[in-house]
Amino acid sequence: MYPDVEVIAGVATGAIAHGMLVADRLNLPFIYVRSAPKSHGLTNQIEGDYKVGQKVVVIEDLISTGMSSLAAVEALRGAGCDVLGLLAIFTYQFQQAKDNFSNAGCGCTTLSNYTELIEVAMEHGIISSEYVEVLKEWRRTPETWGK
């Protein structure tokens, strides 16, 4: 998707291992981004070797609202990196996340999502069709579901 990528960045801590594997496979440098600068030592928020202007793809494990992922994107942009986009393993497909990524001008692509998870679980008999509507309703309003 991003043939011009020069650096792979993982979002700490869940996506560090995944990002490192991607960087290794592509033979690219790897950096990672904390949610906030360290309170001691060099006080870095971004760890690893990168240069201003380099094209970066961010790797994330899970997207819920997208806020932690976008905090990493903004930290990289603030450090002068050109963030090409974000790739994640899974998303719950919350509308809030879609809106947040759109507002931030950052593309987000995932390997899998909540809808696919439910479909595969049904196909394999892990959940029955009677629970599908309950699961879909949770995704529509997780903050108020069950209250």
Major sheet: size, sense and barrel closure? Answer: 6 strands, mixed
Listing every helix as H and every strand as E from the N terminus to the C terminus, the arrangement reads EHEEEHEHEHH
Question: Remind me, CATH topology?
Answer: Rossmann fold
Query: How large is the radius of gyration?
Result: 17 Å
Shape: elongated
Can you tell me the CATH architecture? 3-Layer(aba) Sandwich
The low-pLDDT segments are none
The proportion of residues forming helix, as a percent range, comes to 25-40%
Give the percentage of residues in beta strands: 15-25%
Instruction: State the CATH class.
Output: Alpha Beta
Outline:
Helices cover 37% and strands 24% of the residues. The protein has 147 residues and is α/β, with parallel strands linked by helices.
Structure description:
By secondary structure, the chain is an alpha/beta fold. The protein has one domain: Rossmann fold (3-Layer(aba) Sandwich). Helix content is 37%, strand content 24%. It has 5 helices and 6 strands, in the order βαβββαβαβαα. It has a 6-stranded mixed sheet. Helix 4 (114-123) packs antiparallel against helix 5. It is elongated and about 55 Å long. The mean pLDDT is 94.
List the helices and strands and how they pair.
Blueprint: E1 7-11, H1 16-26, E2 30-33, E3 46-47, E4 55-63, H2 67-78, E5 82-91, H3 95-104, E6 108-113, H4 114-123, H5 129-140
Parallel strand pairs: 1-2, 1-4, 4-5, 5-6
Antiparallel strand pairs: 2-3
Helix pairs in contact: 4-5
